[in-house]
Write a structure and sequence with these properties.
Length: about 100
């Protein structure tokens, strides 16, 4: 898994690209505090090489919790900036520091 951050000079926005290698998966989405944890809001597109990829514009100078949903199973990104415990999910969420 990979996270790429590209900060814009013209406005306080960071383009965050999420990449998830999941050849066998039918669907992958990224959910988090930036999209109300909506599993349909940010679905990633499957590339020919089997990687799912998508870009989200997020406001800079913020922290966001997130996870991936791969065929209905929630997983964390091992390249998250840090992790935070979530009592509601009874699991850790990945954290993006922008």
């Amino acid at each position: 898994m990979a996270i790429k951050k590209q900060y814009l000079k013209s406005k306080p926005v960071c383009k965050v690209t999420f990449s998830v290698p999941a050849e066998e998966a039918k669907s992958v989405a990224v959910v988090g505090s930036f999209n109300e944890w909506n599993t349909e809001a940010t679905e990633l597109k499957k590339l020919k090489n089997g990687t799912f990829k998508g870009t989200v514009d997020l406001e800079s100078n913020n922290t966001y919790e997130f996870r991936y949903v791969v065929d209905g199973t929630y997983i964390n990104d091992d390249q998250a900036d840090t992790y935070a415990w979530n009592d509601f999910a009874a699991a850790e969420n990945g954290v993006l520091n922008l």
